[in-house]
């Protein structure tokens, strides 16, 4: 502590811990590109999309996201950007700062559908699907969750049987982001050889994807059911490297990593909204930001927000170094989503009744995060993952 206050850089309320010092110029450039795209393309319309419960421009949005390199961002080859995992995380943060539904579009496309093909597919499958998915010309989805089997995917009922050299798939998948607009669905099914993954063209006879309506969360996102009614596929539709439940779980780990960052984007937007509101909203003759209880709320929110961002950075560096463990991703997903929800709820209290209006982003982010808390592993499942890691005892069964 040899530095004097006069020699120190000024305190930055937007980056109180100086986390930006950890970023390279390239990191900052990636962040700026995604932030500007979201500001230009999403923020002016997102409240309307959310209120209407639709994402009308999804195909055009996908192409634009492909043009800035945001799809399959950390993958290499096949038109993918080959960015670092930290850069992908920064992109997720900026996208979810606009809306969780937009980040979900990117996560499902890149971390689930594209990653599954990139990691487990044949060279022919990669050449067929990945360039178009990286450009946004082809949208993908990921079919694992079923109506009766969410946290227990090993009990899935979807099955695939051999008929000659073909595969025939039958079953249903539920809560599938991008499902009704996808050109390819990565579908997981039981076979006589265990759980296998399939790249299913969505124009295959017997495949349908009715959109799920009446959602009160992730309203600016396309969510569907997948119905596979005797869908016949050639032998080369199976992902040759995907055998057993570990394959889809590895894909989920990629998506969970993006959520660790993304949740902090939603939290940041709500926090900044609360700070701006507290500076200008007057009660009892002065701005409410001058009252002790409001400042206490803002201080606590800032602590959790920036600790969460610092945690995301740490996990990103470990991911780029090849040392990130699944338990550590659970640590990040559990903490950051839980704290993000609390930040949104506290922000709503500062805004009072205005907090429930779509004139402000707070309630939209709060309701979206209720879904983020559940998908890619519920809070309870991540608690059990960490509990097992800490004790060596399996409480799942």
From TrEMBL:
Domain called Acyl-CoA oxidase/dehydrogenase middle: residue spans: 141-231
Essential cofactor(s): FAD
Keywords: FAD, Flavoprotein, Oxidoreductase, Transit peptide
Domain Acyl-CoA dehydrogenase/oxidase C-terminal: 243-390
Gene3D superfamilies associated with the record: Acyl-CoA dehydrogenase/oxidase, N-terminal domain, Butyryl-CoA Dehydrogenase, subunit A, domain 2, Butyryl-CoA Dehydrogenase, subunit A, domain 3
Keyword Transmembrane helix: no
Record-annotated Acyl-CoA dehydrogenase/oxidase N-terminal domain positions: 24-137
Similarity remark: Belongs to the acyl-CoA dehydrogenase family.
Name of protein: Acyl-CoA dehydrogenase
């Amino acid at each position: 502590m040899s530095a004097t206050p006069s020699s120190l850089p000024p305190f930055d309320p937007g980056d109180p811990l100086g986390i930006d010092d950890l970023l390279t110029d390239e990191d900052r450039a990636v962040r700026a590109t995604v932030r500007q795209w979201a500001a230009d393309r999403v923020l002016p319309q997102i409240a309307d999309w959310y209120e209407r419960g639709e994402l009308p421009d999804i195909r055009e949005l996908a192409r634009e996201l492909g043009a800035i390199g945001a799809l399959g961002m950390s993958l290499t080859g096949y038109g993918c950007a080959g960015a670092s995992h930290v850069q992908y995380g920064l992109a997720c943060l900026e996208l979810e700062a606009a809306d969780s539904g937009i980040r979900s579009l990117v996560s499902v496309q890149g971390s689930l559908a594209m990653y599954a093909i990139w990691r487990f597919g044949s060279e022919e499958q990669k050449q067929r699907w990945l360039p178009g998915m990286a450009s946004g010309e082809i949208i993908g989805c990921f079919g694992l969750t079923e109506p009766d089997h969410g946290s227990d995917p090993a009990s899935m009922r979807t099955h695939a049987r051999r008929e000659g050299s073909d595969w025939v798939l039958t079953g249903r998948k539920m809560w599938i982001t991008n499902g009704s607009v996808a050109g390819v669905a990565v579908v997981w099914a039981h076979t006589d050889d265990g759980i296998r993954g399939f790249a299913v063209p969505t124009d295959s006879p017997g495949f349908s994807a009715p959109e799920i309506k009446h959602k009160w969360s992730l309203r600016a996102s396309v969510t569907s059911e997948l119905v596979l009614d005797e869908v016949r596929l050639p032998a080369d539709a199976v992902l040759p490297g995907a055998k057993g439940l570990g394959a889809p779980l590895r894909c989920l780990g990629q998506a969970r990593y993006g959520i660790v960052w993304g949740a902090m984007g939603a939290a940041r937007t709500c926090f900044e909204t609360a700070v701006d509101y507290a500076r200008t909203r007057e009660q009892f003759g002065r701005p409410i930001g001058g009252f002790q209880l409001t400042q206490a709320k803002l201080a606590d929110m800032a602590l959790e927000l920036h600790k969460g961002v610092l945690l995301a950075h740490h996990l990103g560096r470990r991911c780029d170094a090849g040392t990130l463990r699944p338990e550590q991703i659970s640590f990040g997903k559990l903490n950051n989503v839980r704290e993000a929800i609390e930040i949104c709820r506290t922000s709503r209290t500062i805004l009072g009744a205005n907090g429930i209006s779509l004139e402000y982003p707070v309630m939209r982010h709060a309701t979206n995060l209720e879904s983020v808390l559940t998908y890619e592993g519920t809070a309870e499942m991540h608690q059990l993952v960490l509990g097992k890691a800490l004790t060596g005892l399996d409480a799942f069964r």
